[in-house]
Design brief:
Elements (H helix, E strand, L loop, with lengths): L1 H37 L6 H17 L4 H19 L13 E5 L4 H12 L4 E4 L7 H5 L2 E6 L3 H9 L9 E4 L5 H10 L4 E6 L12 E8 L1 H13 L3 E4 L2 H28 L4 H7 L2 H14 L3 H9 L2 H22 L3 H15 L1 H20 L6
Helix pairs in contact: 1-3, 2-3, 6-7, 9-11, 9-12, 9-13, 11-15
Length: 375
Amino acid sequence: MPLSKLRDQIDAIDQQLIDLLAERLRLVGEVGEVKTEHGLPIYAPDREAAMLGKRRAEAEKKGVPANLIEDILRRTMRESYASENETGFKTVNPSMKRIVIIGGNGLLGQRFVEMFKLSGYDVDILGRANWEQAETICSKAGLVIVGSPIDVTESVIEQLTYLPDDCILADITSVKDSPLHVMLAAHKGPVVGLHPMFGPDISSFAKQVIVYCHGRNQDKYMWLIEQMKIWGAHLYNVESKTHDESMTLIQALRHFTSFVYGVHLQEVDADLQQLLDLSSPIYRLELAMVGRLFAQEPALYADIILSQKNNLTMIKRYHQHFSDAIELLENDDREAFIARFKSVTDWMGDYSTLFLDESRTLLQQAHDNRNYEDK
């Protein structure tokens, strides 16, 4: 049959693609070794943008959709970033004494332990099991990172009054202003607040955002900032108060909204499988984000939402806006709804178009990943 012959040809081309991808990954491994030797970050945004632009232009000349080649290359690069982790990273500060991760047995703490070890540092883990040795372990440290749960972070920091004067004290909790002040009070040496804006399930630090808030003696810890850049992370500096105000909207409000939506689904005893069957990719993604929340540790989200008094204030404001919007529905005020909708669109400006484009890419990926079962 002609169809069988065509499929055989397609299968042969697919095999060639696999061979080419294998060769590309092999070359990526060699690139990783060169980057490690010279201390180059695994993610170079300018290089990536230039390469994608060139490939898109070449694809269009051959009648291949530019978005198709970009999707393929981005997925390939994501795998490449993960494989580059295996080659290790340049040690930015070879003279650094031991690094201590408090909470290093936790999921996120484990990722930092892994990355520091891949970068050639000696790392100790400090937790409940060996806390009685804390002073002895920390006496040899050049960097101590507090990765304890939010609700005990400050009490842990308050105990670290015995750190060497030249030791850097940092934390990786999602609240920055209060812990930063507690660190400054407990330790007279270098202090910096860090907030990794990702969970422990990432395959690579490439393109991940890590916020840092200056505390004291920033010249002593800038090597740490550079080290994380080499891992591929995007380091973003912000004042601690500004950070916390932003996290109220980015984390607390969004997590609380997902929590309430999940509670509502439970209360109405929604048929989740039917909702999934009826959902197009965009609605499936929304359900996935809610489900993702409830698949994780509840104490973490309770601590994030309850971590600041401002969070409750913002949630109450949101509740009021929700009530105002319900009033539009109760009044059957279609024109007022449309006017309010347009006012938000105008306020967002070009960002609404940006978000539309980004979400379209996510939806295409979600669509590609979905499998329909025969019923």
